[in-house]
Amino acid sequence: MAERRQMVDRVLGLLAGTAVGDGLGAPFEGSATVPSTALDLWIFSPRTLHHTDDTAMTLVLAEHLSRSGGIDQVVLASDFAAAWYQEPMRGYGGGAAQVLAAIADGADWRRAAVSVFEAGSWGNGAAMRAAPVAVVSTSVPEAAELGRRSAEVTHAHVHGRHGAALQAAAAYLALHSGPNRPLDAEAFLVDLTDVVPAGPWQEKLARVRALLGREASAEEAAASLGHDISALGSVPLAVYAFLRHAEFPEGAIRFAVRCGGDTDTIAAMTGALAGARHGYSGLPSSWTVRLESAALLHRIAEHLTHDRSTGGSTGPHRPEQ
Ligand code: F2R
Ligand code: MG
Ligand code: MG
Fold first, then answer.
1. What ligand 1 atom has the least distance to the C-alpha of 230?
2. Shortest-distance atom of ligand 1 to CA 124
3. CA distances in angstroms from 89 to 17, 84, 85, 94, 171, listed in the order given
4. How many whole angstroms separate alpha carbon 267 and alpha carbon 257?
5. Residue 254: strand, helix, or coil
6. Domains identified in the chain, total number
7. Whose atoms come closest to the Cα of 124: which ligand?
8. pLDDT (tens digit, 9 = 90+) per residue, 232-272?
């Protein structure tokens, strides 16, 4: 029972960390730099933390997983499209909105996902929502595989898919990291390196390792890893922000926003990892109390964890044959 409560706390932390990062980062999205003073004004404000597409899509995926225990791509594509149709004002990417509109109009997701960009989108929209697949996974490779499957319904480009795989694998490692001993950043990076191919992704992870070695600042990390709307130019930075302050979730999320650029998304991905490691109880209550969607997050975390701890009606995900 205590074990189940702990897992609910960590799953809720993963979801609430996403929403907090998203809400704290959103006002600064697109700003090259985020001065500490401006961030502090917003961090210490009592105003509601409204969420954007990052949290909206994360919650859709989490609900999908809690219903089915795995990923049914036809249904997931339609779930994403329905959420966009209901709330198109959540700040979706331009291409993503067109893909979702096509799916809402009845197009097959396989065609829709390559209807705007020929090779599909390399945006970070699949990575930003991928973390919940970690909850239904039983290994790092399975989390990565589910991340890719959740991505391809809208992000067909290989970089869009690798970004989701990396974030999903990082979320799995964070969720299952021992909370009572310091995180082993080197082992974390070795595991992540296994889920992406040699080339630019592994090169970015090598840079994360080097930046950690010299405790690089937000500005230096953003310059080295990128802080833009692409998956390759944002997921490694989110991993860095998490590892840079692995024992201090508040510091990790704050650091992510300070990196500038695609702040809502980088902070949402960092927040998912920090929340998965430290749980909802490890996030500042002065932030979680401001969340627009707090009640929904609690409900989804309970459902998602319930299905896992009971074996559920669905059991663990089996890869498609
Ligand atoms: N869209 C935004 N922010 C813009 C400002 C929103 C504004 N604040 C508002 O309130 O409306 N943020 C959100 O979008 C990002 C996730 O994007 P996603 O889901 O990947 O979308 P998309 O459209 O697929 O890709 C984003 C852009 O990247 C370029 N791009 C992608 N693939 C491309 C390709 N193969 N060839 C050329 N360009 C490609 C395009 O410019 C896409 O529009 C997150 O930041 C989220 O917060
Ligand atoms: Mg957004
Ligand atoms: Mg964004």
1. 28
2. 20
3. 22, 8, 9, 12, 27
4. 6
5. helix
6. 1
7. 1
8. 999 999 999 999 999 999 999 999 999 999 999 999 999 99
Whole-structure pTM value: 0.96
Closest ligand, as measured to the CA of 87: 1
Count of Cβ atoms closer than 10 Å to residue 40 Cβ:
11
Give residue 199's domain range: 2-304
281 domain residue, yes or no: yes
Cα radius of gyration (the chain):
18
Does the residue 316 lie in any domain?
no
For residue 320, being part of any structural domain is answered with: no
Residue 313 lies in a domain: no
Q: What is the CATH number of the domain that holds 165?
A: 1.10.4080.10
Whether pLDDT at 56 is above 50: yes
Q: Whose CA is nearest to atom 9 of ligand 1?
A: 91
User: pLDDT tens digits for 111-159?
Assistant: 999 999 999 999 999 999 999 999 999 999 999 999 999 999 999 999 9
- What pLDDT does residue 180 have? 86
